[in-house]
Design brief:
Blueprint: E1 2-9, H1 16-29, E2 40-45, H2 51-62, E3 68-74
Length: 75
């Protein structure tokens, strides 16, 4: 079973990397961009479906629940 886990900074957390990329992109495109947020993307494969195990991995290992949110997608 394959899972995709996306980890992003919480909306209330400052994202300096996203802001820096936004500035460069606006200069390159010569156009305003409302916002860019930077996150992490993980692909995890396990032998059989186990949503609880994957949620535990995402919450306790792949993200910091104080400053990040995560989303789990099944493929």
């Amino acid at each position: 079973m394959k899972y995709v886990i996306i980890v992003k900074p919480k909306k209330t957390i400052l994202d300096p990397q996203g802001k820096a990329i936004k500035k460069v992109a606006e200069r390159y495109l010569q156009n305003k961009i409302k916002n860019i947020r930077v996150g992490k993307y993980f692909e995890v494969e396990i032998d059989k479906r186990n949503d609880e195990l994957i949620d535990k991995l995402a919450k306790n290992v792949l993200s910091n629940e104080v400053i990040e949110d995560f989303e789990v997608l099944k493929e």
